[in-house]
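Researcher: Last one for today. Full complex below.
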Amino acid sequence: MITLPRWFRRPSILMNETPGGPWGSGGDDDKSGPRNPWAVPPGGRKTGQRPTALDEFLKRARGSYGGGGNGGGPQLPAGINARNLWLIGVGLIVAAWVLFTSIHQIGPQQRGVVTYFGRYSGILEPGIRLTLPAPIVDVEKVDVEQVRNDDFPREGGENVLTGDRNIIDLAYTVRWRVENPRDFVFEIKDPEETVRATAESAMRAVVATTTLNDAIGAGRTQIEARVTRAMQQVLDDYQAGVRVQGVSIKQASAPASLVDDFNAVTAAQQEAVANLNNARSYSQQIIAHAQGEAAAFDKVYEQYKLAPEVTRRRMYYETMEAVLAKTDKVIVETPGVSPWLPLDKMRKLPDVQAGQPAPQQQAQGAQK
Amino acid sequence: MNVLRNPVTIGFAALGVAIVAAATFAIVPETKQAVILRFENPVTTINQWQPGQVIGRTGAGVIMRIPFIDKIVWVDKRVLDADLDNTLVLSTDQLRLNVDAFARFRIVDPLKAVTSTGSTSATEERVADQLRPLLGNALRNELGKVPFSSLLTPERGKVMDAIQDSLQRNAKQYGVQIVDVRIKHADLPEGSPLESALQSMRTARQQEANTIRAQGQKQAQIVRAEADATAARVYADAFSKDADFYNFYRAMQSYRHTFGADGGPSPEGATTILMSRDNAYLKEFEGRGK
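Model: Here's the assembly. Have a good evening.
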């Protein structure tokens, strides 16, 4: 219904202008019906409308032969001049019309979809292109190179169900462009909205088959690729003439109210790693210690084997020497004689022994 | 001659011609189908959609009709959209879902579309209005036959096909072909269903955290035990070469440690040793002479 009114409205204006002048009967702007311009005082028109260039031109032309103000009926003023002026005026309008509607400037990123009496006839490539004028040929320019970005949702994030019945907060962008301007113009009503609806349904269908951990973690790239494929397939089914360049997930996270719980999982993971690290360091220590001790024993044993008796004696005496040198000694001469014990000094001993660190003994026990 | 020269007469004549021409000729664009009504009685359709038709070789173009008698009703030829928002659906397992769906359709029989809706303007919208409740019914029926979980699996496609078939059966009377039916959103309704889903997610996270922690502890314990075992083996390998000497050697070490003679921190408190005359250390004390 776009071309039709234009097609019949325009000639009717042209026809009216011939007899009545631009402000004559049937004109688009004149609501008051047919009115004779010659009967109206020259200034009268100006209240409602701006005088156009043509108005000025005609006014001047009329002034040149003076007797226009005779009023009364629709009477053509004498002289061939007036007729010519009308013809020139109409000719100019037609020429401008043809000029404007048959020259098309198609930008480098655009294509022009040409219809000939409503029927599709071809595509105009970029450049200045000539066609037949408007009612016959109509050109619709479509931007094909520009990649369009659609954000989903338009702001924030939306809740999407995953395959394991979890909810994630999702935000993503779809990039697409027009691949086939003919299909884009003729096959789908409101193609932009169709792309949006397709994207939403494809994204949810794909997320509905992935797990929560994939969706918020490693599976993103895969989801993006699958959504791109699914969208393309659906749009091809519609013959939308659209090429989906890509889908990128801007945000895929746990719902805001669950962030603490998700963080707790991360904390637990770190705790587990820390635990394991501690165990490993203990392991290194204890093994190194064992190896050291074993090596020391081996060295001593090597020498001991060469002269067992002497070495054993030597070690015994050296040890006793070292030990006894630091302690108080009481030697009991004969069996049956009880020595006097300095009990006041010894009284401390049990306390001290009780206070001695137990783990040390245990550790030594373990070493054996 | 004078009459013909009169511009007003010419103007009115031209206007008349233009009006008749406009009423006779019409341009049918590629995007529209036209139903011609003659005294409200449909006579023909122009540029009707046909499968496999190539754009540019359709019925679009200039048509003629009988002026003032034939009336043109325009019907869109493109793929159209019927949206359905916030339909509450109950699955077989009694889970409520809030579903937004859309159907893409094409009016393939414009005459039927016009007669069935009884409208001569905005037929597409009337048809979409008729389709919406049908789509809602199809959704409720088909989704009511499957458990909720099948919406979250690849089976979803099958459910969609079933909905499309069911809708297609009902939509035929409007001269409509259903191109596609899709679910845009399938969300848990606000309130308790959403809350309980979030609650189950929360407990699942807690469970995961606890499991990870326990697993970490288990592994740490295993690592420690393995280290202890390795150490024991290293000791055993070395010391079992001569158990007797080890006993002696270790005893010496232990004495030194216990009595503070190994250079380490000296044990607290004084030690008094009572020695028998028979002590091996004192064997030489009395001299060889005895």
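The helical segments of chain B are 2-5, 7-24, 110-117, 123-143, 156-171, 192-239, 243-258. Chain B has four domains: 2-76, 80-189, 194-241, 246-282.
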